[in-house]
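hi! just following up on the protien thing from before. the input was this:
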Amino acid sequence: MSKTDKTIRVRLVKSLICCQARHRLSVRALGLRKLNDVRELKDSPSVRGLVNKVSYLVRIEEGA
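and the predicted 3d structure came back as:
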């Protein structure tokens, strides 16, 4: 990624045990597997949509 691309850091903060199957797939699509996993992703509308869908499971850390 170039320096002009904005990124967001996404951390999985809640377990996937009691959530819907579609939400589990969304978390997996973000690249998160275990509790407290962190991924640095490109800030795009598709990533923001996935994060908004599972906002109760993840925490966003702006800018990296």
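The two ends are 12 Å apart (CA to CA).
The chain has one domain: 7-62.
cheers
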